[in-house]
Specification:
- The structure is a single chain.
- This protein has about 375 residues and is an alpha+beta fold.
- It folds into two domains: about 1-130, Creatine Amidinohydrolase, Chain A, domain 1 (3-Layer(aba) Sandwich); about 135-350, Creatine Amidinohydrolase (Alpha-Beta Complex).
- It contains nine helices and 19 strands.
- A six-stranded mixed beta sheet has the order 4-3-2-1-5-6, with helices on both faces. A three-stranded antiparallel beta sheet has the order 7-10-11. Strands 8-9-12 form a three-stranded antiparallel beta sheet, with helices on one face.
- Helix 4 (about 80-90) crosses helix 5 (about 105-115).
- It is elongated.
- The model is unreliable at about 360-370 (pLDDT under 50).
- The chain binds zinc ion (2 copies).
- One zinc ion binds next to loops.
């Protein structure tokens, strides 16, 4: 793994150098973790020519010594801009880059004041977070664990999903199971929505109970070793209203069309379009308002973006979601979301949870059963 961090640091340095910067400032936790292995919440990285620093405060001194390799550790005792100025004084740096998307205007101003007369502090055009879009083998292993832990948790609570159960009860049970797994935590606040509430793509769990002929949408994930999974399934209690059954079928078709379009070299926007066309042709185009998918890794939402305005090109090693959805106000919504690993010869769906929509409790009618 040590070699991986060295390689990542080299790629980050190159990104800055290609734009004429001698040094790079990294301030956000996911990128800091990616480049150094540091798992704490407060750390910074300064990559200069031939020299690199990891900066944290005294709370993390011991942890940094254990986790960080290949970077010299500097402990922050006063103000950050002053320490940055001091570290830069030992290097020959006239232009220092930062990621404009990740630093506040106030922080930029205070660092610029500290560096006045010594170095320009300017935004990088390239994306630091974009470095993370292609995953190495260890990252894919962590993502697979995050998916399998999410699935294990779902199987463990599946029996709870019966008529009368509240959204909140299911969300709580799922969160507990995600923590009980040998992973870090839930990846994000779990979405559980029944009936018409499922038409809200980001519904917060409420006290609403699952009724007869109702549907329940669950969007959940696990975080393992810092890496996130993100999945969505919909369960039907009994025979759902005909239109809900119909949109469930359309969403599955859209998902299939997306998987057919995913290959190395494909434009992410074209994959979004392939799925969207199926939903539009079925007459539901206006009810699929969000992008088809997003990269997952050290963040739940990261590069690439699978959406109409995306300029991302899919590459082997990328891991992202595919999540077509149709949301009918007042009636209900259906979304099916999986994590996809793009390999050299095509996409692999990580995980094995069935996508069928019948209640898992065994009381369910029909031939499709969730727990295999
Ligand atoms: Zn999701
Ligand atoms: Zn998602």
């Amino acid at each position: 793994m040590a070699a991986a961090y060295k390689e990542r640091i080299n790629r980050a340095r190159k990104l800055a150098r290609d734009e004429g910067f001698e040094a790079l400032w990294v301030n956000d936790a996911p990128n800091v973790r990616y480049l150094s292995g540091f798992t704490g919440s407060s750390g910074y990285i300064l990559l200069g020519p031939g020299k690199g620093y990891f900066i944290t405060d005294s709370r993390y001194e011991l942890q940094a010594a254990q986790e960080v390799r290949d970077l010299e550790i500097a402990i922050l005792r006063g103000r950050l801009p002053a320490l940055l100025k001091q570290l830069l004084s030992g290097m020959n740096v006239s232009r220092l880059a930062f990621s404009g998307a990740l630093l506040s205007f106030d922080e930029v101003q205070s660092i610029r004041r500290a560096l006045r007369g010594t170095a320009a502090f300017q935004p990088l055009q390239g994306s630091l977070s974009g470095l993370r879009a292609v995953k190495d083998a260890e990252e894919v292993t962590a993502l697979r664990r995050a998916v399998s832990n999410a699935e294990r948790a779902m199987r463990a609570v599946a029996g709870l999903v019966r008529p009368g159960v509240t959204e909140m009860r299911v969300a709580e049970a799922l969160a507990c199971e995600l923590i009980r797994g040998a992973c870090d935590d839930a990846a994000f606040n779990i979405i559980v929505a029944c009936g018409p509430r499922s038409a809200l793509p980001h519904a917060t769990p409420s006290g609403r109970r699952l009724g007869r002929r109702d549907l329940m949408l669950l969007d959940w994930g696990a975080r393992c070793g810092g890496y996130h999974s993100d999945m969505t399934r919909v369960f039907f209690e009994g025979e759902p209203a005909a239109e809900l059954r119909k949109i469930h079928g359309v969403v599955l078709e859209a998902r299939e069309a997306a998987l057919q379009a995913i290959r190395p070299g494909a434009a992410a926007a074209d994959v979004d379009a392939a799925a969207r066309r199926v939903i539009e042709d079925a007459g539901y185009g206006e009810h699929f308002g969000h992008a088809l998918g997003h990269g997952v890794g050290l963040e739940v939402h990261e590069a690439p973006v699978l959406g109409g305005a995306s300029r991302d090109i899919l590459k082997p090693g990328m891991v992202f979601t595919v999540e077509p959805g149709i949301y009918l106000p007042g009636k209900g919504g259906v979304r099916i979301e999986d994590v996809i690993h793009l390999e050299g010869d095509g996409p692999r769906v990580l995980g094995r949870l069935p996508r069928s929509g019948v209640l898992p409790s065994g009381a369910g009618r029909g031939s499709e059963v969730m727990v295999e």
